Amino acid sequence: MAAVRATPADPTPGLMSEAGQSGDQRAMPPELGPDSLAVLSGPTFMYSNSSGDVPPGSIGGLVHLDTRLVSDWTLTVNGGALLVLRAQTIEHYSAQYVLTNSALPALPPNSLGLRRLRYVGDGFHERVELLSFQPEPVRLEVRLAVGADFADLFEVKSVVRDRSAEITRDHAADGSELCFSYRNGDFSAQTRVCCVPPADRIEGDELVWDLDLRPREQWKVDLHVPLPPGMGVVEPVRGDIADVVHGRVDDPLRRWVEDRALLRSDNQALERTVRQSRDDLAALRLDLEVKGQKILLPGAGLPWFLSVFGRDTLISAYQTLVAGPLLAKGALLALARLQGETCDDFTDEEPGKILHEVRSGELTRTGQKPYGPYYGTADATQLWLILLSEYWRWTGDDETVRHLADNAMAALRWIDEYGDRDGDGYVEYATRSPEGLGNQCWRDSPDGICFADGRIPVLPLATADIQGYTYDAKLRLAELFDGPLANPSLARRLRDEAGTLYERFNQDFWIDERGGYYAVALDGDKNLVDAKTSSMGHLLWSGIVPPERAEAVVRQLMSPDMFSGWGIRTLSREERLYNALGYHLGTVWPHDNSIAVLGLARYGYRAEANRISLAMFDAAEQFDHRLPEALSGYDRERLLFAVPYPTACSPQAWAAGTPLALVRALLGLNPVGGRLVIDPDIPAELGRITADRVRAFGQEWRVEALGTSGNVRLQAS
């Protein structure tokens, strides 16, 4: 019998763990619904349905550092569920729910006015306010059911192990507190629910208050779930719940945001979208400790990816350099400190490799998952070098580049010695871990790389986008070796290697059929994986496309089969596996489109870049000016409105960075020789764009543009 060959869907035949692939992800369950809300602060979030409840068995709950501290949070009055009048977030960390009652025995509908106020800061805080509109006294039972399953976030999005036998309870006899505790070896977690006033009684894991309310009498209870001490929330907001929700307390985050570059536009939707992006990137900031190193970076996205990622962080930092260099510098330094040092099959670590993902939950800390950190990515190392170059171009910071010289050399060695697995000049990937990812490019779902006829290729894979990144990284590194790293002979070698890669790539990856396009990958047998994908936009961004082929690539990207009207689809509708709701099989990803826009602008296709940018801004306007992680690939003319991917993260870092990258492309804003230069092409729909406090070369600049005219000047300090 022939041996089973590894594919991204089964990357380690015979070694797959009982837990299954770490990429497993359940669909959004109906019990939270499309109007679900989350409050967020760093690595802590509370995710509930629109009434503020977390039904048991759902993906909702209070999660901190990848551990779910609350899995059931259900409020009832006289045994009845509450009806939602309106609910919305106020800030990323706060929300308000306005509720009333349904028809209940001896209580007509709409007899009660209820409000839930909540925020996440130095813990989870909630206030429940209840007002009786009945003309006569009423007797009410208010009940809060609480559960704590201590599930690892990996389990929340797949299957949760039952820990009930290991969970102990130490509830307070006076009704002031519920306490749940769990321990597994060196891993421990505790959930305390404190309440003022205390409950009249505790029944099982439920707090119960017995009320006698006069007409127009109001009652309230404050609930608090403390967070475990240590790393986590960056500068949390603190204060009385109502004061926090109404903005009457000091907000450290607001001060941080107000110190950043400020964009104004005649188009209010654009201005609000950029402002929302700035707020979201600030909200996602994490304060973590990994391998003894303190890391201050944005997490990738709520709810699944509130942790540090290599690829996501690097692309987000690149997108946002136009607003300032701090995120880029932080990403470079933090990821360099965690750069791979040894070969480890379980974690896919190799010397010089930049990490993929960090996790803090039980499965990682007890060694069942390889995420402390995990290195299964074949593109983060090149992206780190690209960001290092781009950071230097915007800042002229020779000192930081020299400080990271050894890391840059280690990254280069990884590309040549470990990334190129078979010595053919291309960077390939294949996991060695039974818990590893099958696809290690950004299209990292098991079927994210496929043939046009739907077949899944055999590993190892050399994807087109990774070769483009490698080409760009070597040219950029050559620039650094001609400059602050002062090694012109190595610079010449890198340019020669990049030139060879350019020639070979354009010979080996190009397909003349179907109008001419680039294959998405070479498989383990060096066959062309011939699906048409959005990866062609990444090739434009990297500059590996010859000018004479750019028009064919642009025509493919903007064809009706690839451009949905909201953006470029990840996979063409021509291909067998196309699915408007498939994670990488036809959805529209904002960050993916921002990279394509930068590539289109690079090659002079400004009208096409603007068409995508306007579509992205239109989509953001439909989601309260916040772009989700991904949009469904439905045709815009058919549905008329944008539809999010069912389990899209929101906010999500590289989706939040997208509007800033689009603005950079609109302005044609680039650092050249210690100055900012501008070459705007702004559609009439956006009017005038002005940006103040744009930081570059240690100075602040004012940028102003209208149509194809613009100027850049230094601002007085």
UniProtKB/TrEMBL annotation:
Domain Putative glycogen debranching enzyme N-terminal: 41-223
Pfam hit, one: GDE_N_bis
All copies of domain Mannosylglycerate hydrolase MGH1-like glycoside hydrolase, residue ranges: 387-622
Coiled coil: 260-287
InterPro entries: 6-hairpin_glycosidase_sf (IPR008928), 6hp_glycosidase-like_sf (IPR012341), GDE_N_bis (IPR032856), MGH1-like_GH (IPR054491)
Alphabetical keyword list: Coiled coil
Top-level taxonomic group: Bacteria
UniProt-listed Gene3D superfamilies: 1.50.10.10
Stretches the record annotates as Disordered: 1-33
GO process terms (BP): carbohydrate metabolic process
The name this protein goes by in its record: Amylo-alpha-1,6-glucosidase (Glycogen debranching enzyme)
Lineage: Bacteria, Bacillati, Actinomycetota, Actinomycetes, Micromonosporales
